[in-house]
Amino acid sequence: MTLCLTHIYGGVLPCPWPDCAEGAADAAFEFNGTRVWRQRFGEVFGEPTYAWIIDGVTAAYVAAQFTRRAMAQVNGAHSVADDGFMYHFTDETGLRGILASGELWLTDYRDLRDEQEIRDGQQVAKATFDALRPDLQRETNSLLDTLLAAPLPSGVYVSCFCVMRASSYHWSEFAADSSGAVLEMDPLGFEQLLACDPFAIQFTRVAYIWDVKAGLFAHLATWLEELVSFDLARGLFARDIYLREMTQIFGELLPMCKDVSLFREREIRVIVTPAQSKTDLASKLAVRQTNERRYITTRDVLPSFALPIKSVLLGPKFTGDISKLAIDGLKVPKFVA
Length: 337
Ligand SMILES: [Zn+2]
Prior knowledge:
alpha+beta, 2 domains, six-stranded antiparallel beta sheet, 9 helices, 14 strands, binds zinc ion
């Protein structure tokens, strides 16, 4: 099992980049009796990309691998809040639940409350694919059409944070008209969670600007085209396998997009996609449901994970009984506008 965070590669083979410390000296080798070789593909930001190609096997998984790599390069949440923290807004009930249980919910993306939010990514995707369409093969266009027409993919779980703590907009939008609270967290405290399965757990900024969102979908379409062409030339194009891979990656891209009118939210998200797990994460998860909202928790993903809560800020209109909050050892200032 290799995890190369430099080249954003994860899999049973060594990292395919030449001269990588996690890589292999030989450009071709036998794996389970089959020939595997290093293939160079197109450039991103002036650097060529590489993948292992297995003799006689479709390279559909490479299109997904390269798209995921581009997503991390374009939109990874390397830097977070101006002050180094991030903030999870919630109502009073949510606050009590989080403090008592020590875990956060990750909601099934299909059950997020705002329908328009979900549609936004699909609209940008359609416009981007339409613009590229004349340059793409028939097989690629057919796959993109199917992605656009399909229902939202299952198995994508999202938890939301803001990078700003003190804004009346955030208090009213996300903390029940200021009667809720915000948990101040240390993003570095999430590293343990991300590291337990880096290809199934992403920490990403939400993209609001059209060009950023379109760029993400253009990466998807461009890699798909390159790999479809590669496999067509080898006589190994397998539409169903491409569709399965691209449906999953499309499902990971949609929660990274929101309408530009929501720009001031400045949201970042932890996105968990168990289907991408290299550690069989899906078998450890018990999906629960409350009020038509399907969710998993941070503790499902990593049982030993402790939320890195630094303090709790109570909303200007918070009226709950503070003595019944499980806030041992936490700093709990009443919010002052
Ligand atoms: Zn590498």
